[in-house]
Write a structure and sequence with these properties.
This protein is of the alpha+beta class. Helix content is 19%, strand content 25%. Strands 1, 2, 3, 4, 5, 6, 7 and 8 form an 8-stranded antiparallel β-sheet that branches. β5 and β6 form a beta hairpin. The radius of gyration is 16 Å and the shape is elongated.
């Protein structure tokens, strides 16, 4: 799987990242350094693992990858820090009644992995969730105003805000797209 491509996945298991273990988080003092490629692969693996935990499977496409350098924070760091971020735009229509269920499934998966939940969304219309892994990566599931859903992963210094336009959902699923309770 190419992390920078415009990959389209309609719920099939192909293109999965392997279960490689990665040392530390980029840009984090006191942790072993990880190369940018290793950080990008770790982000891809976190995203795929999260999507694999959702049943029934969601249709998705790869989002626009992010990478860059952040200037050091005055008095806290002396060197610039680089970051990488990856995302998935969910193409499955997730109905309003199912949004909280999707966020809950993702939150439960992240808690089972031992990751720290760092934020929860507002209300039933936008019930996002955010987490941090033990090795310093950050994840977020966000719902937009038009029903768009984005799953993001980033190295420790990446802002999990997503980059580029978000794809509007267009794939109907008997479960996730159902409008009844």
């Amino acid at each position: 799987m190419q992390s920078g491509g415009a990959e389209l996945n309609l719920g099939f298991q192909g293109g999965r990242c392997g279960g490689t273990s990665y040392g530390g988080a980029p840009g984090r003092p006191g942790r072993p350094p990880v190369g940018r490629l290793g950080a990008a692969e770790r982000c891809e693996a976190l995203l795929q693992e999260t999507l694999d935990a959702v049943e029934p499977p969601l249709a998705w496409r790869a989002g626009v990858p992010a990478a860059g350098v952040r200037l050091p924070r005055p008095g806290r760091e002396s060197e610039p820090c680089w970051y990488v971020g990856r995302g998935r735009d969910v193409l499955t229509v997730v109905s309003l009644p199912r949004r909280a269920e999707l966020a809950g499934a993702v939150e439960r998966h992240w808690r089972r992995r031992g990751w720290t939940i760092t934020g929860l969304g507002d209300g039933p219309a936008r019930p996002g969730v955010a987490a941090a892994t033990g090795d310093g990566y950050r994840l977020a599931l966000r719902f937009g105003e038009l029903g768009e859903v984005r799953l993001l992963a980033g190295s420790s210094d990446a802002a999990c805000s997503g980059h580029g336009p978000v794809a509007l959902p267009e794939v109907c699923c008997p479960y996730w797209s159902a409008s009844g309770w």
